[in-house]
Amino acid sequence: MMGSLLPIGFAAPWVLTALAALPVLWWLLRTTPPQPAHVKFPPLRLLLSLRNKEETPQHTPWWLILLRLMLAAILIIAMAGPVWKPLDIAEPKTGPLWLIVDNGWDASADWDRQIRMAELMVDGAAQNNRTVMLVTTADGPAQPMRLSSAQEVADQLRALTPQGWQAARSELIPALQKQAEQNAPGAILWFSSPLEEPSTTSFARGLASIARASDVRESSFLIYRSETPVYALKQLQNTAGAMTTTVLRHPAPLAETLTVRAFDRKQRAIAEQTIEMKAGQSTAEISLELPSELRNDITKLSILGKASAGSTVLVDEQWRRRKVGLFAGGFSDRSQPLLSPLYYLERALAPFADLPPAKSTDITTAISDYFDKGISVLVLAEVGTLPKTTEADIASWVSKGGTLIRFAGPQLPEKQDSLIPVALRLGDRKLGGSLSWKEPQALKSFSENSPFRSISLPKDVTVNRQVLAEPTADLPDRTWASLEDGTPLVTAKKHGNGTIVLFHVTPDTKWSNLPLSGGFVDMLRAITSISSTAVFNPDDEEGTTSASALPLLKMLDGYGKLTPPSANHKPILERDFATTHPGRDTPPGLYGTDDAARALNLMEDEDNLIPLDLKPLSMAKILDYPSEKPLDLRGWFFSIAILLALLDTLALLWLSGKLRRRQFTHAAILLLIASSLSLTGADKSRAQDNAEQFALDASLDTRLAYVLTGVPEVDEISRSGLFGLTRLLTDRTALEPEAPIGLDLQNHELAFFPIIYWPIDAGMQMPSPEAMSRISAYMRNGGTILFDTRDAFGTGSNSPNKLKLQQLLRGLDIPSLEPVPQDHVLTKTFYILDNFPGRYNQSPMWVQASATTSDGSRPVRAGDGVSPIMISGNDFAAAWAIDTEGNYLYPTIPADGNQREMAARVGINILMYTMTGNYKADQVHIPALLERIGQ
């Protein structure tokens, strides 16, 4: 283990014992006189030398002794390996190293530091030839728990990303105990996230028990905890005037400003709201006051700059505010509103729906006006016989996706129309009173196929009058709620794409006390939530039907981004969706189909951010993640030792008389200046010269550029590939580029190049935040980056290169993407192309999504319409790569000469597209061009 002294540690602290020999060295230097001065003594110079007063000292001067003691001490310290702010590295006395990494959603706040620390620990294990077992807490006990080499674990760490659910650490305790019995750990490292799991079983207590049973020492049991705040959103509500949500954070030591931003289906920002949180404040409510039409376009809310699965809320149909049309039949006394059939309906629906007023008391005019206003739900209270034209209009509207809710009453027609979900008996049944054998009935149950199944059954509701349904074979399937005697209270049926619902009681208190119950509000909310916010077009006659099982469509990752699902996740039964909790098997995300997606969010209304409890681990050493990397000071100490040795040499020359005092002073000054320049200025001047030369090479001639990944074989393929593309451009076009340039993203200027080829490799290092900022600026200012994962031969799986690209794109502000459409400019800039092959021909080319006009055409965009990003996996550089003699270096897969030619054409089209923009999409000049061709 690295010894430490304050913020300085030593790789070999035992070397410092040599400092005890400094007093002996001082005594030797003091008693040993310096070398006497040598003076030439020819006979003729005897008289001239008589005035020489120089004397050789008997002892070495004290300042020279001090200089040499400092030199010896600094050399000893340098050989001890000094490190500024060293890391505590757990080295097992015997046995393997356990590496436990929290990779739940809350780990995303400090993920980079967490993985960097884990990689440093694995590097230390590799130097000591120790085996390592990697355990990730969000992946459950089914993950393989086995001892591996440090190199294999390092590769696994680079591929890790935080998951979108909370880590269930306690599930791992039995598997870890079994592993400890087979091969006890010698050291345990836990890289923890800030939050505790919602479980009664304590992972910390179980881990402490394993450490005690395995006799793991405190110095070999380290826990790194994160103090970076974690943010979350919960309690989403769409009220009458605004969409509100609650912001959570932990810990909350400082005051800060947070911004919640709303996005639409195309990930465009609709609105945002800023809130000031005081020091110590952990919760706050934020409100987006927007018209209901804009709120209905919101698909996601997230906290700006604090992206995670917890700080992201997905918005689906159930959260969108519906427009509900209300129409009552009969005659209502406006002076007594409590007797109005709409009184309770208006108050029950107002919190979650918009209620546009009726234009007329005439049902035909009112219904037509409601349809023009785009209502989703139509409520008819005590409406009798409908006019035939109105009945047909309502039936057509329902078949296109509308929801009709009807209530029974005295005006219910004896001759039933087509807008009644079940056959009814004539008259109504009275319960209670002197002429009835039956007592008022309470609610019995909600059907499993009804939207009420997740509602708590109201115990205080009684019904004293109802309309009975004829007992038919399909009546149980159409019953959503029933009374204790089994008679239906609410029935419904599908009609085309819509739904017809009938309450067998009135909407006021004449037949039951249901309107006085909170269950009435919940029932209306449930019916409204299953309706669509917009009626389907007539062309969409088939519509969408809800399947019994909702498959995972897209899942939220730890950073709050929607990603394709893997095969390890289960679908959710539609009847269980409202009660499903997000987890490893059912992660947060979108379920169902693209047209009818249901959102499962991570944070539920009752959830809170519970801080991680590490009290049971008093036997372990608990550390914070370091804010900066350790700094090796050996180079600095050796440099100082060299300077002191040079000064000692000058002092010896001066004492021996071979160097005059003035010469000594000048030489010492020059020596110090030269030494300081060599240590600090050489690199700067060399860097400046290199930067100037790079700018000249990049600007005086047109050159293609590729990103240096740090993987030699990948960089060589990129160089030879762009060299081959340069030859193709010279032979086939008027463009004559010079040799390609490899780009160091940290130091080189990117603005000289219209397009940059970036091959993705799992082993490459992630760019620094400063480099990522420069890349984003380059793309915003008109540059294009072509990302190539080079793995299309395995398109069906999440390859390491694809995972690396996903990790890279999280740090960039990228637009919405789509595969290259058939009418895109890329397909016709120089050659006419149908697809975009490289060495492989299995991956589509992705570019920025283009907006389409009403006639289906693609309008010209600003900036010449050039996509700032292109993504492919077809390994373009390998298809273009040639040697100095023009021979192709890599075969195409499959080996097809035509594919090689098409890959060459793809490269030329890409270069012409990025350098000339969308001129071929400009429709203005087509008549002039056609006229010129005709002439």
Automatic annotation (TrEMBL):
InterPro entries in alphabetical order: Aerotolerance_reg_N, Class_I_gatase-like, Double_TM_dom, DUF4159
Membrane-spanning segments: 62-84, 636-657
Record key words, sorted: Membrane, Transmembrane, Transmembrane helix
Domain (Aerotolerance regulator N-terminal): residue spans on this chain: 8-82
Annotated DUF4159 domain residues: 703-915
Record's keyword annotation contains Transmembrane: yes
Domain of life of the organism encoding this protein: Bacteria
Cited PANTHER family: BLL2463 PROTEIN
Protein name in UniProt: N-terminal double-transmembrane domain-containing protein
Organism the protein comes from: Pseudovibrio ascidiaceicola
